Amino acid sequence: MELEQRDLSSMLETAIVAARLAGQRAMEEINYIKVSIKNSNELVTQADARCQKIIIDRIKENYPDHGFIAEEGEEGRMFKQPPRGQDPLWWVIDPIDGTNNYAHRMLFFTVSIAVMYEGEPIVGVIFEPATDSMFTAVKGREAQLNGRRITASEEAIDKFASVGLESHFDNGAPSWACELMERTRFRNLGSTALQLAYVAKGSMVATIANTPKLWDIAGGIAIAQAAGALFTDWQGQNIFPVDLDNYDGHKFQIITANKKVHPEIVEMLRH
User: Fold this and answer.
1) What b/e readout covers 220-245, taking b as 16+ CB neighbours within 10 angstroms?
2) CA 198, 216, 94: angle at the middle one, nearest 5?
3) What is the C-alpha to C-alpha distance for residues 119 and 96, in angstroms, rounded to an integer?
4) Domain final residue pick, 118, 150, 182
5) What tens digit of pLDDT does each residue of 146-172 get?
6) Whole-angstrom Cα distance, residue 38 to residue 174?
7) Does one domain contain both 195 and 95?
8) Angle separating helix axes 214-226 and 192-200, nearest 10 degrees
9) Tens digits of per-residue pLDDT, 190-248?
10) Shared domain check, 131 and 16
């Protein structure tokens, strides 16, 4: 199949509506949170599954034959439903990215939705309910925040630059992370998707993550790349296309950064 711009625009509109509905539900439930532990090392709330159902139900109204990969499935596993038609289109969904924040009533959380085609993200939406911020992108067009164009910065790594760092390091912070902590205003917002969106709008020069899964990054990568940022694994290699038929929830190591900073960070992580 060949996707036209009107197809992409239609999917983007569906994603925006679904993200807003889910984000509104999350805000309604934030003062009534019930928390449990998933897979012994992750928190999950009743709102995660409810918001995911809202998103999938809304998408299926328009695209009943598309595939789905989403965070909240049965017994702590991911939810996966392959496409039923001939078109290899998958919706990749994180109903609440930043669940740990959300579970503690911290407002740094987002709804992340992507559409992937032939293993590549072609539509991305990240909605931050607390600030009513809607980040959007369609492949081949500009990235936007609430309808206005955003672009990655041209700022270098220095004492005024913000770099997003993940907090999951099994054997302590590596030397490169300590170097970035010393050279920048390093940040961890607790939402990989939000940090990717912040690279896209120029608020961060880079974000580096060690343990995200596909639903954490798919929407944000579509937006960051449309904004002119570069995205690779820690070795500077492409992650996409991803084999979605066989994706099992494995983690990625990612660097997303503006064009000035990306090569420097790749070199830093190689040492």
Assistant:
1) bbbbbbbbbbbbbebeeeeeeebebe
2) 110
3) 23
4) 150
5) 999 999 999 999 999 999 998 777 777
6) 27
7) no
8) 0
9) 999 999 999 999 999 999 999 999 999 999 999 999 999 999 999 999 999 999 999 99
10) yes
